[in-house]
Structures are given as structure tokens and as C-alpha cells.
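Notebook, bench 3.
Goal today: get a predicted structure for Thymidylate kinase from Corynebacterium matruchotii ATCC 14266 so we can plan the truncation constructs. The sequence was checked against the plasmid map this morning, with no discrepancies at the termini. Length recorded as 208 residues. Pasting the sequence as submitted so the record is complete.
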Amino acid sequence: MIENMIIAIEGIDGAGKTTLLATLREQLHAEVIAFPRYETSIHAQLVRRALYQQMGDLTDSVYAMATLFALDRHEARELLHPFVASNALVVLDRYVASNAAYSWARTGDETIIDWVAELEFNTLGVPRPDLQVFLNTTPDVAGQRAINREKLDRDRARDSYESDRALQQRTADAYGQLVAQNWQSPWLVVEPEADYLHVADRITAALQ
């Protein structure tokens, strides 16, 4: 039995996180929380407006955007801490590593990942994940999925990050470096062709 665990699912836009999360919810009886929390967090709502070019030059500042993403998670601390102190499992759709990877990709400066960790884990006090799972989907495949999703759902129009193919590639590369460093916790890499039922078993084994 898995107890007191926070698992973060990471990957670029269109990597396949939604499908994996649905499998984990069913197979591991996990609670799922998605970031950014656009429906409930004012900080996430400001992020969304910025990503759709509705906040002037706000997106030009990597640090400002990273801070808004971080404040969304800070607001959710009360949702996350019960999973540290009780027999329960929560799976997160994006977490702090997403902020680190995108910030690194946007600046080209590796040291920003330390700034993100200090801001989120230390200053804002969000709990560290017990395991991080990286969906190693190529930017070409992920990008096509995002385009197809946009065609099927008008509410899923790609934002400025999702539409930037070069940014997605740099972010994928940054994630690869975070995985290689075991940044902040152990990582598990999931390849695009993986059977997600088997992935659930791998996660269970990794947390024993």
C-alpha cells in the first residue's frame, strides 16, 4: 500500500499527462490536482490571461511568470499538506519542476532552477514531491497533439508557450537535465510507447 505520497507528473505541453493521470486515478485510487488551477486561483487566472497576450508585457518577465505559477501552488498548500500527514496519495498534473524547466528554457540560465526551488519549497513552503514522473514525448509528437486538441475544442486554443515549438524543445531538454540530476526527488521516465497500466505498476514499485 502506498502511503503519504505526492507524485508529480511532468512533461511538455501535449506530452500525454491527461491520459496517464486518468489511469493513475483509477489504478492507484489517487486524488488528482492539476496546476495551474485556472478555475480557482487568481494567480493562475492572471497566468492564463498573460499567456493569451492579455496582460501587456507581463510574459516578457520570466521571473514574474514563474512567481505567479509559484503563488498558485502556495495557495494550494492546504490541499497538499494532508497528503503528507495521512494515508493518502495525490498525483499532480505539473508541479514545481514545470516552473523550473520552462524558466530554464526561457532564460538559458541553469541557475534559475535553484531560484525556483528556493522560492517554492523554502519561501512559499510547498511540500516536495516523493516522486516525479517525466513523460519523454518528443516536441513534434506533443505539438501535433496540441494542434489536434485545439481543433476539437475551441476552449483549448494553444497559448503562447504551447505555440512556440523552439520553447517546447528547450523545455524538453531542460526536463532531461532535471531528470539526470534527480532534481529535488527521484524521477521515473516514461517513454511515449509505454503501457500506462505498466507505468502504474512501476510507480508503485518505485514508492515501496
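The first helix runs from residue 17 to 28. The first strand starts at residue 5 and ends at 10.
Flagging this for group meeting.
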